[in-house]
Write a structure and sequence with these properties.
By secondary structure, this protein is α+β, with helices and mostly antiparallel strands. The protein has a single domain (about 10-225), classed as Alpha-Beta Plaits. Helix content is about 25%, strand content about 35%. It is built from five helices and eight strands; from the N terminus they run H-E-H-E-E-H-H-E-E-E-E-H-E. The protein has helices spanning about 10-20, 60-75, 105-110, 115-125, 195-205, and strands spanning about 45-55, 80-90, 95-100, 130-140, 145-155, 170-180, 185-190, 210-220. Strand 6 (about 170-180) and strand 7 form a beta hairpin. It is globular. The two termini are about 25 Å apart.
């Protein structure tokens, strides 16, 4: 079984279609979470990984979404994976996801040397995996559906401004306060119902656009709400 979002059969059919279409955290998060999320986890042991893989030239957005949906059973079954925000990065130049893991060991078990070999062989470029430690997690609302027009926003800045608190603005679903595992830089990662709601909030908070990265997130896995 392949671990990429596309099986060989899917890649072949997508290529044909593509050619045709060229024209300080508590020990458990429960005290902060929305009632819809009832599964506790140890925040201090959790990590987030952000992956980026080169998008095949023929993989338009709707094809990426189709591949994401087909991969749901496989990713839902991964041990230790609590949440995944499927991601279309950089205007579609790369794709991947934001993964919340119970432990770093479980993340590393998935992103092993074979994963990197498989990605490079399948997509013709090395995959990138970035690790973040989790300082706090807050759930404000449960997503209405796994599919949607969600957006994930990374705010990287000074340690002070990345400590910002979110006062439950409209459209905010959940937030993670994190530190880059390599540099120690503080950041926040937030999930929104729409890009417009996220932009409205950060503009009102007077956060510089240069500190923000917006990522198209058409599909979610949330095992904390199961």
């Amino acid at each position: 079984m392949t671990h990429s979002i596309f099986s060989p059969e899917t890649l072949a059919s997508m290529m044909l279609i593509g050619v045709m279409l060229i024209p300080l955290a508590p020990e458990r998060f429960l005290a902060h979470s929305a009632p819809a999320e009832t599964r506790p986890f140890n925040v201090q042991q959790a990590v987030i990984t952000i992956t980026e893989v080169k998008t095949p030239w023929y993989a338009l957005r709707f094809l990426l979404k189709s591949g994401f949906e087909k991969s749901l059973p496989e990713y839902t079954a991964i041990p230790g994976l609590l949440q995944k925000n499927y991601a279309i990065h950089n205007g579609g130049k790369t794709f991947g996801g934001f993964y919340l893991w119970e432990t770093k060991a479980q993340a590393e078990a998935w992103f092993n040397p074979k994963w990197f070999e498989r990605v490079e062989k399948t997509y013709g470029a090395a995959g990138k995996v970035s690790y973040f430690t989790v300082r706090d997690y807050q759930a404000f609302a449960k997503e209405s559906d796994a599919k949607g027009e969600y957006w994930t926003v990374i705010h990287r800045s000074s340690a002070q401004s990345a400590q910002q608190t979110f006062s439950n603005p409209q459209g905010l679903l959940r937030t993670y306060l994190v530190n880059d595992a390599k540099t120690g830089q503080a950041a926040s990662i937030s999930l929104w119902n729409s890009k417009e709601e996220a932009e409205r909030y950060f503009a009102s908070a007077k956060i510089a656009a240069s500190e923000l990265t917006y990522t198209d997130t058409p599909l979610l896995i949330n095992k904390l709400a199961q």
